[in-house]
User: Fold this.
Amino acid sequence: MKEEKKYLFDKPENVQRLLRVFWVVLLVLLIIDLLITKHPYFSWEEWPEFYAVYGFVACVCLVLASKYLLRPIVKRKEEYYD
Amino acid sequence: MINAVPPAAIFIIGAFLIPLFRGKLKSAFLLTLPVLSFINLLNIPHGMYWSFHFLDYTITFLRVDRLSLMFAYIFHIISFLSILYALHVKDDLQHIAAVLYSGAALGVIFAGDLLSLFIFWEVMAVTATYIIWARKTKASQTAGLRYLLVHIFGGLCLLAGIIINTVSTGSIEFGYMGLNGLGTYLIFLGFGVNCAWPGLHSWLTDAYPESTITGTVFLSAFTTKCAVYALARGFPGTELLIWIGAIMTMFPIFYAVIENDLRRVLSYSLINQIGFMVVGIGIGTELGINGATAHAFADILFKGLLFMAMGAVMQQTGKINATDLGGLYKTMPLTCIFCIVGAASISAFPLFSAFATKSMVMEAVAKEHRAIIWFMLLFASAGVFHHAGIKIPFFAFFSHDSGIRTKEPPLNMLLAMGITAFLCIFIGTVPSVLYSILPYPVDYAPYTAPHVMAQMQLLFFSALAFTLLILSGIYPAEMRAINLDIDLIYRKFAVAFLWLCKGPLTNFRAALQNFSSRTIGALAKFATDPLIVPESILKGMQLGVYKALATSSKGTNPKVADLEFQLNRLIKMRETGRYYGTEVPRRPVGLAVLLAFILIFFYALIYMITQ
Assistant:
């Protein structure tokens, strides 16, 4: 049987490489945030890493709420309306 | 001005000429329509054209000002791109419906009065329904019918509002209204149905994913954006809109996270994006309106692009559920890249379109110090990246390998996606071009260090959340399931209502009918000879008396026999109806006259009392 062509993310080391770049970007973003001057409308925008924390927490809450609160209530079989 | 042809007219007349062309000529003709109309549009100065007097009112088909022009520009661009995307479709009716639909949308945008607005509004509803039905599946048929019913409801609200408003103000002009009086509330509600407000939204997530691959691209652009335009024209600065919009940005993302059908995920995120526009209109400042309209402009492109990419996936694989897809980057790399551009644009990455447009709405909210709204929108911004920015490309093109090996879609689809992707990046990198056509002068710079940093942090740490949740296995697995939404009310409760009509209500009606027909029959019998009852009673009493007397004397009394005979005859007559028998009643004429007089007296009495 013919061996199928290997694609970009078929190699685990490429996935690892991508993840490593991702961690570095996160770190850089955290560091730059401490260095720039902000011109906020709200006081909390000045807090260090406000957006990073908010983005992370918001998404975790979003997923957990969807999975554990919304899905049990609304999930039905695909044929529900047929 | 004679030269100014309403763009709607070009589209609508053009739509009916489509069947005259064949092959390549048809493609050329289809593509020429929006281009021709656009060139015509560029040569029309601001002003009111094509005004007619109808009854006591002025109907204006072409009002050209900055607000209508900017919507018209993007409508021309997206109709061109959608037509290009749909060029391979061999069904004339689909092309006609799509071009009519686009034309009607332009009619709405340029309508200077509420009556012509309403007419084009309804044409849009009907043509859109056809576009949904064109998929020709059972699901699309029923979803299309529900779509039509919901939009008829919205249209009737709008019509009732227009009539009440016109009667109370004496003018049919479509300008700023604001919420005052029943008429404006009804118009507001009519707009709200098309705008997919929370609770009125389920027609969108119900019908759009059931439409054809090419049709959904058209649908995603026009109906909701016409409603955004209408709200920006009629109700800017309405406080209620801020809250409606903020809720719109929030609730769909929860659904989008657990939804399996990727085009339905996009439909939810469409509502989420319109929410930002509605908030901008609700804020109502120049920045708010600019932000709302600019974001509508950008959204039409990136949402169109995402629907195009998912359509391409669907066309090439025949599947659209996240559970069935994955690993398509291997064989559809171009589609994958276009999809990622769309995803980056909707997520507002720097250099992509929404970064320059959505941020105007955020800034408008911040300037008014609306902290709660601001937090809601920021939550939605992170969420949109999560479900549209990552989930769509990840589950379609990466994730687990579905084993599907296919090829890129036809050239016309690739070209349409390519141009749209270019425009998304163009708006993001050179926003000044878009800013120059906004309704108000723009004093806003998106590319400041704090803004770029804030947005990058928000997005990358949302991505971190996604990555960690996926790696840890907490992220909700895609499931072959559907999720109940508000359409449950008319899809299930309607069945219960139908049962109520068919069962108990029908029985009640039958019983009522039975009762009334019996009563009428009895009354009719009585009316044919009203005296028969007292006569029978009288005769019966007489007979009783004679019988009682007869028992004391011996032998049969001839009087009793005679009375019995007469009574039997009366009873028989009552039972059979004397007019079918040989017996004809013998009553004095004077008695009939007396009865007639009595009846006339009662009629006259009733007449006097009711006067």
Remarks:
- Chain A touches chain B through 47 residues (CB under 8 Å).
